[in-house]
Amino acid sequence: MKVYADLHLHSPFSRATSEKMNPLDLVxxxxxxxxxxxxxxxxxxxxxxxxxxxxxxxxxxxxxxxARGADENVLFxxxxxxxxVHLYEGRVKRIHHVIFMPSLEVAEQLGEALSRYGDLERxxxxxxxxKPSELVETILGVDxxxxxxxxxxxxxxxxxxxxxxxxDSIEECYEDMAKRIYALETGLSSDPxxxxxxxxxxxxxxxxxxxxxxPWPWRLGRECTIFNLSKLSYKxxxxxxxxxxxxxxxxxxxxxxxHYSGHRECGVGPLSPAEASKLNYRCPVCSKPLTKGxxxxxxxxxxxxxGFKPEKNMNYVKVLPLHExxxxxxxxxxxxxxxxxxxxxxxxxxxxxxGSEYNVxxxxxxxxxxxxAPREVxxxxxxxxxxRYRIIPGYDGVYGKLELKVVQKGLEGFLD
Length: 416
Ligand SMILES: [Zn+2]
Ligand SMILES: [Zn+2]
Fold this sequence. Notes:
The protein is α/β, with parallel strands linked by helices. The chain contains 14 helices and 17 strands.
């Protein structure tokens, strides 16, 4: 069975998170999107964990949970993100890690073990004063079925390879426990092709999740990992990750908020690696350091040329949130915001008629799309599927902007 999984999410106990990020509401949003497995988010937070214990029940012996009052078409995996703070070569490193756990009971035990390193009640994503190697040792000491991997590996802040407080390799981060790390989350601003340029990452499985703080379809599942399993269980999922048997849906990396460099406060950006390095990574307006783009960080660590494809590479498909595609399609009549009523209505019509957003984006034929949407929207969906678009790259916290290549009257012909 195919499993579309978004396994890095946050609960209302994390900062700036929607109240709708609870299991029962999320089941509804997941179905609209086409997801069938979600992370619980924040499972180490004591109050959230007790809410989860009430809201979820285990699907017998699978290590996965269903929401009480909902069917089993959307399941949950127990998951949390933590930030470690430690000194490395005299400098403070702040790095985020995702943890998968085989049960809510293990989450409780792990919470006890980690509570001596930081206040788990302060934030859904707790900050722990612990070395990453000790973190992994502690987690696997509690239950060796847990999986730990670096979160959004390339973002400038709080990630393993981040330009502000990261390091240059998995080994520098996890030291003697690096051999127990099997995967990394690529984050929105990088895609597998960018990671393939760094040969020392070859042995890691590249995962993609949304890290969403809200359930809206342009956030939840904007990236996800696809599994093909004979039986859906925690054990099978971990085995597929360890052996690299996954595929991912990825937004184009330019869409991510940190793909290029810039300084948002001064309106400087997006700057390509060449432009930013000419400025010595200083803002030309205020001369503070620029927020260095993920593209630049990959370039720094890469030992292979752009476009390199390793022999054993995984599959991935580029997608953009359907709201973005509809909004761009309506652009000639004035760009409509993702939250606008007109975009929402067009979205709903497509998803209701054609099953789920992923089905609309990936599979529905032009003939099906044209039954459910105006011609310009149907054409836009096909154009994005075929890569006929460009994106003004994101930088310093600003999302990239989708631009469809100029559509001329009569262009429908190319679809025949
Ligand atoms: Zn994070
Ligand atoms: Zn500036």
